[in-house]
Structure formats: structure tokens, C-alpha cells
Design goal:
The protein is an alpha/beta fold. The chain is 40% helix and 15% strand.
């Protein structure tokens, strides 16, 4: 899976209405009228192993691993903006995450700040989402004493259920579920 799509392969996003997109269907099963009503949203999991997801009018949901460099991240969001994306729905991480090392937390919060700057510079409307809120919209909740690895695999399974035509990975699963919560 490429880390960053080239501008010529980025989606065409229709932004002429406020009706939500059907997040759990393939593009072939979506009517032309529904395609015209898709929300122009990009979903972002800014974590160290995070991802980016969006709805492509012709191909349905799309997702990539977070690009490796700031330049690649900027190029990705510039391409999505040129394609019509208007809003970024980004997970707002907790200040402290149990079990996360200092470097992982530093990288996570640095990514959030960088992505906020990209959103501002490129003219995106930015919505920061608490994980509990977007997960509640999808009826997802971590079980008491559930190991992090098991919880992340459950999220991946849910993303696979909602997006059966995509190659869902641990890197892009949260971004896809954030996308589904925005529909």
C-alpha cells in the first residue's frame, strides 16, 4: 500500500450538499444522487502508526497509512483539498496514554500540531474528536481489563466489517472508523 497518493490518483469529492454518505457500502452500490450528497470529509488518526481515510465518489472509502514525512503529509492533504475535501475530522489524543512511551506521545502530539497547521494553511475546517465520542457513535467501547492489542484488533475487525472491499490494517482502521462516525 503506498504511503502517499499522487495528486493524479486522489479522489474527486462532491461537496454540494449536507446529506451524509453511506459509510458501509461500496461505491458501485451508491446511487448518483447519493454520490452528489457526500460529505467532503477526511478522517485522521494522528498516532505514530495512524492513518488517513476519505470517501471517493467513484471508488468508495479509501485509506492510507499516515505518510512518513511532513512533506508527504502536506502533499496528501493538498491533493485532497484540490479534490474537494473541506473538513478534517481528527482524533484528539489524550494527554497521557497508559502504556505509551515518551517518544510515542511526543510524536503523537507533534503530529497533531503539524496537522492542525496543515489544516489551517490549506483552508480545511478542522474538527477535533475525542475518541470516546466517535466510538460511541459506532457503539464501540473498550471492555474493562481488555488488553490494548485485543482492543485494537476488535477495532480492526469492525472496520473490516464496515469496509469489506478495503485492505484494513491496524494503521488505517481507526481512521476508517472515524470516517464512518462522520457519516
Amino acid at each position: 500500500m503506498p504511503t502517499s497518493p499522487s495528486p493524479s490518483t486522489l479522489p474527486r469529492i462532491v461537496a454540494d450538499a449536507e446529506t451524509p454518505a453511506p459509510a458501509c457500502r461500496d461505491a458501485a452500490s451508491v446511487s448518483d444522487a447519493e454520490k452528489r450528497n457526500l460529505l467532503p470529509v477526511v478522517a485522521v488518526d494522528p498516532g505514530v502508526n495512524g492513518g488517513i481515510a476519505w470517501w471517493d465518489v467513484d471508488q468508495g472509502a479509501q485509506a492510507i497509512r499516515m505518510p512518513d514525512t511532513d512533506g508527504d503529509i502536506l502533499a496528501t492533504f493538498r491533493g485532497l483539498r484540490r479534490a474537494g475535501a473541506q473538513r478534517i475530522a481528527m482524533e484528539l489524543p489524550a494527554k497521557c496514554i497508559m502504556g505509551a512511551g515518551r517518544m510515542a506521545l511526543l510524536t503523537l502530539h507533534r503530529n497533531v500540531g503539524f496537522l492542525q497547521g496543515v489544516a489551517m494553511a490549506e483552508g480545511f475546517e478542522l474538527h477535533l474528536l475525542q475518541p470516546q465520542k466517535w466510538m460511541a457513535k459506532l457503539s464501540l467501547k473498550k471492555r474493562p481489563q481488555e488488553e490494548q492489542r485485543h482492543w485494537k484488533n476488535r477495532l480492526k475487525e469492525e472496520a473490516q466489517r464496515r469496509f469489506p472491499s478495503l485492505k484494513v490494517t491496524l494503521a488505517n482502521a481507526d481512521a476508517l472508523l472515524i470516517l464512518a462516525s462522520q457519516q
